Design the sequence.
């Protein structure tokens, strides 16, 4: 999605414990290591576990002037349908996604946030480089496999 001089806007929505901050930080780190300008803003309530959390991540080949998202290019939700304007909405609780996720090996399924990272990388057209994932994010072999599996997932028909 992020071609030359294009601003790409990603929104991640979940609850405490879903790994929303991890996903946004991981994407930001991968993108900044790839020479993109990156902005990440979090909005969350005071609850430690189970409270709502949103991450707005923007990236571009040029400096980012306004880090606010009016309409996301990609929105990934761990909590079901939300009232967010987006070009592409990924609801991991939707039956079609849940079916695909339920078919994964238990060892992969337990790393749902890694699978979600792969889905986001695919949805934003960020090239998956397993070696770079491991080096940049310090992921172990099982996590890199889960990201690669998520990158290859498509929503069931």
Sequence:
């Amino acid at each position: 999605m992020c071609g030359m001089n294009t601003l790409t806007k990603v929104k991640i929505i979940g609850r405490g414990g879903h790994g929303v901050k991890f996903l946004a930080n991981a994407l930001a780190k991968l993108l900044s290591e790839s020479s993109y300008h990156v902005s990440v803003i979090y909005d969350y309530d005071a609850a430690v576990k189970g409270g709502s959390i949103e991450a707005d991540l923007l990236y571009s080949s040029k400096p980012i002037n306004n880090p606010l998202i009016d309409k996301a290019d990609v929105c990934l939700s761990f909590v079901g349908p939300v009232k967010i304007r987006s070009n592409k909405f990924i609801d991991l609780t939707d039956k079609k996604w849940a079916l695909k996720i339920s078919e994964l090996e238990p060892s992969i399924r337990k790393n749902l946030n890694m699978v979600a990272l792969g889905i986001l990388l695919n949805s934003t057209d960020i090239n998956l480089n397993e070696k770079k994932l491991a080096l940049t994010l310090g992921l172990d072999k099982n996590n890199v496999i889960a990201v690669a599996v998520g990158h290859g997932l498509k929503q069931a028909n």
Observations:
- The beta strands are 8-15, 37-44, 52-60, 72-77, 86-91.
- The radius of gyration is 15 Å.
